[in-house]
Amino acid sequence: MSPSDLLQLSITEISPRIKNKEISPVELTEAALSAAGKLQPQLNSFITILDQQAMAQARIAESKIMNGEYLGPLHGIPIGIKDNIETQGIRTTVGSKVLGKHIPTNDAHVVTLCKNAGAVILGKENLEEFAAGVTSNNLHYGAVHNPWNLDHIPGGSSGGGGANVAARITFASLGTDLGGLSGCQELFAG
């Protein structure tokens, strides 16, 4: 299976293959990082791509699998984290230059849960500044573009995550909901 073919699978299709050692978390993360590198110039879906950290997490996930320690359906799966969710040691801007240098000292609880489940964090995803809007047209980090039509928006405020999942860069995205906006990405970007 080619790297691009791997990214076409769903979590429910790929997780058993990781568990059964048919697909490597390292191989999967390399494919996702390659897709992110190719598509980021068009989509602008990430504020920060975590190449080295993601590969380190993928190697740990693979080592656990090889030692018979399967953590569940997110084990070895590349995901994105919306950039308003705290990640220890990783810049969290909330889409604003005001917090452009903010480096949290702790993970948000939900990030800890994802890490404990073996998920591989590919990067911090672009969003509307302070998660306040439906366009994901960020004045500081640039607009996020819909992968189906670059002239359209992917919805917001979790537009980076919506674009990444629709473009098959990540298998899932951890976002937030402010006033029912989380459904916009499904409607706008599929």
Which keywords apply here?
single chain; 190 residues; alpha/beta; four-stranded mixed β-sheet; two-stranded antiparallel sheet; 6 strands; 12% strand; globular
What secondary-structure arrangement, pairings included, does this model have?
Layout: H1 3-6, H2 11-19, H3 25-43, E1 46-49, H4 51-66, E2 78-82, H5 109-116, E3 120-125, E4 137-138, E5 142-143, H6 159-166, E6 172-174, H7 183-189
Parallel strand pairs: 2-3, 2-6
Antiparallel strand pairs: 1-3, 4-5
Helix pairs in contact: 3-4, 6-7
Order of helices and strands: HHHEHEHEEEHEH
Radius of gyration: 16 Å
**How are strands sequenced across the largest beta sheet?**
1-3-2-6
What is the end-to-end distance? 25 Å
Tell me the structural class.
alpha/beta
Describe the sheet with the most strands.
4 strands, mixed
Beta strands, count:
6
Instruction: Give start-end ranges of low-pLDDT stretches.
Output: none
Shape, please? globular
Which range does the strand content fall in? 5-15%
Q: What is the helix fraction of residues, given as a range? A: 25-40%
Total helices: the number is 7
Walk me through the structure:
- By secondary structure, the protein is of the alpha/beta class.
- It has one domain (3-126, 164-175).
- It is 37% helix and 12% strand.
- It has seven helices and six strands, in the order αααβαβαβββαβα.
- It has a four-stranded mixed beta sheet, sandwiched between helices.
- β4 (137-138) and β5 (142-143) form a beta hairpin.
- α3 (25-43) runs antiparallel to α4 and α6 packs across α7.
- The longest helix is centred in the first third of the chain and has 19 residues, at 25-43.
- It is globular and about 45 Å long.
- It starts with a helix and ends with a helix.
